[in-house]
Amino acid sequence: MDASAPDNANDYSPSSTVIKFDRPIPLLRGPLPANPSDDPSAGPYVLAFRDSRAWASSFAACERKIVAQCEEGARIGCAVSASRKCKPLWWKALRGPKPSDLKEREQCEVREMAECFAAAKDRCAGFAREKCLVPFRDARIRVGKAVLSSKDAVKLIGWASMSGSERSLWLMSLMGGGGDLGTTNCRASELVGFDYYVQCILGERQQSTGN
């Protein structure tokens, strides 16, 4: 018998023959029909988050990953900077190192590292938010037919100031497909002030920018 042959060469049971694969990662966005106001040359479909909660969760995950990568690089940079700042004076090397010198340098490096990393963490948080803000602000979010974007709300305000005949003509144009009320998706920026999850992220950001 060949010593290199496996003991279960003739085992054809499911446990030996079935290959297990990891469960597929769910898609963050799915295809939806494009809105009537979208550019037809871009295609009949757009990618959109399934709801604003999924959008907000992805935004938070994006921030966490960028912050983690930024802080990892900041630790290396701060360690190098602390080592340079706490380097002993050249004349101390001539008389030879003393235990007190090593202790002093250690304390100096710990202090410089803590101060440098504290400042870097704040910068990393701002950097991550800026990097995630632009793409997520323009990202599409699936909405129900009863949900209005900011553009639709402006149209309804204008509708309230119309006369009776003008309102009828306007509603007929919408029913005929000329309007975009009840669209399948909206950009996140269009839902500021109308959706809780979008408001928590983009609304606070606009307020901080305005201040």
Describe the structure.
With 211 residues, this protein is an alpha+beta fold. 57% of the residues lie in helices and 8% in strands. The protein is built from seven helices and four strands; from the N terminus they run H-E-E-H-H-H-E-H-H-E-H. Mean pLDDT is 78; it is low at 167-180.
The number of strands is 4
Shape: flat
How many helices? The count is: 7
Approximately how much beta-strand content do the residues carry? 5-15%
- Return the average pLDDT rounded to an integer: 78
Order of helices and strands: HEEHHHEHHEH
Low-confidence stretches: 167-180
Helix content: 55-70%
How far apart are the first and last residues' alpha carbons, in Å? 82 Å
Q: If you compute it from the alpha carbons, what radius of gyration comes out, rounded to the nearest whole angstrom?
A: 30 Å
Sheet having the most strands: 4 strands, mixed
Order of strands, main sheet, comes to 1-2-3-4
Classification by helices and strands = alpha+beta
